[in-house]
Specification:
The protein is of the alpha/beta class and 301 residues long. The chain has two domains: 4-27 and 83-300, von Willebrand factor, type A domain (Rossmann fold); 46-80, no CATH class. The chain is built from nine helices and ten strands. It has helices at residues 10-16, 63-69, 107-124, 150-160, 169-179, 196-208, 221-225, 248-272, 286-300, and strands at 46-51, 73-77, 84-90, 128-134, 138-145, 185-190, 212-219, 232-235, 243-246, 276-281. The strands form three sheets. The protein has a six-stranded mixed beta sheet, sandwiched between helices. A two-stranded antiparallel sheet has the order 1-2. Strand 8 (232-235) and strand 9 (243-246) form a beta hairpin.
Length: 301
């Protein structure tokens, strides 16, 4: 069995202990005042009655119903639940890449560490967190829970992952919309390699269901500046038969132009749908990168 310490160092835990995930959009509920509600008053959406028990807040008693029945009932509301976050982790073959400047971490290993830190932070706040691992299809769905022991379930799944197979982001995301019945925060950790138009349609589906979306896009530095100088054989990590021996000098300019177009399409699409897109590179300390962004979100509220 894997342990939390396998993925989280004491330094990571100390770094994240003072941070808070603050959902920017409309999410269900709040937890101990950590999450600001967009609604006025004590409650939002009535869910059901239950019998009063000693110790319940008397402000939640339905006095009108008491006048009719001469019995005490508590009105429960949807807003009284915690923030629900679902982390979608890309375990497709392209995430296996590891360059010379990535401190020995593949993109997938970097993504796993980032997911572990985020899950730890959310559970420390008594929020609920779930995990989805996927490539061309959903491989595992762990529904959100807020119990402290739930972290061990997530860590076990994270350490069991092996990046392989092709990816179908649009198909997977459309499928997940139907599984996430309650709106919340959806965190996607992926390199986002795939058809941008199909990806944006799937992300729009999430937004139409009122989910807030935060994307950590994982890059290896090699993918951003294409440092290769000598003849090199490039092999697809998602298709073993796709290999090409090329002179990098002849394709570098075209590669960088295509890369710029890809990133511009992603940025414009995310802006259009009010999605937070955060690039992370594997040569950065993952704790520092994530902590800096979460601090920025807190100050920006």
């Amino acid at each position: 069995m894997a342990h939390v310490s396998d993925l989280l160092s004491g330094g990571d835990i100390a770094r994240f202990s003072g941070l808070q995930i603050l959902a920017k959009g409309v999410v269900e509920g709040f937890c101990s005042g950590l999450h600001r509600s967009p609604h006025k008053g004590f409650s939002v959406e009535f869910k059901e009655h239950r019998s009063y028990v000693p110790g319940d807040d008397i402000r939640t008693i339905d006095w009108k119903l008491f006048g009719k029945t001469d019995r005490l009932y508590i009105r429960e509301y949807e807003e009284e639940t915690n923030l629900r976050c679902t982390i979608l982790l890309d375990s497709s073959g392209s995430m296996a890449y590891s360059g010379s400047r990535s401190n020995g971490l593949s993109k997938h290993a970097y993504a796993v560490h980032t997911a572990a830190c985020l899950a730890y932070l959310l559970l420390q706040q008594q929020d609920s967190v779930g995990l989805v691992t996927f490539d061309k299809q959903v491989r595992r769905y762990i529904p959100p829970r807020a119990r402290p022991k739930h972290l061990q379930v997530i860590i076990n799944e994270l350490t069991a992952q092996k990046p392989e197979f092709e990816t179908e982001l649009g198909t997977v995301f459309h499928e997940m919309v139907s599984k996430l019945h309650r709106r919340g925060l959806v965190v996607i950790i992926s390199d986002l390699f795939g058809d941008v138009d199909q990806l944006m349609k799937a992300l729009a589906h999430f937004r139409h269901s009122n989910h807030e979306i935060l994307i950590f896009q994982i890059w290896d530095p090699d993918e951003l500046d294409f440092p290769f100088r000598q003849w090199t054989q490039f092999a697809s990590l998602e298709s073993a038969t796709n290999r090409h021996l090329v002179d990098p000098a002849q394709i570098r300019l075209a590669y960088l132009e295509k890369l710029a177009q890809f990133r511009e399409q992603l940025t414009n699409g995310c802006n259009r749908h009010r999605i937070s897109l955060v690039p992370l590179t594997t040569d950065q300390p993952h704790a520092d990168s994530l902590a800096a962004f979460l601090s920025y979100r807190r100050k920006g509220r």
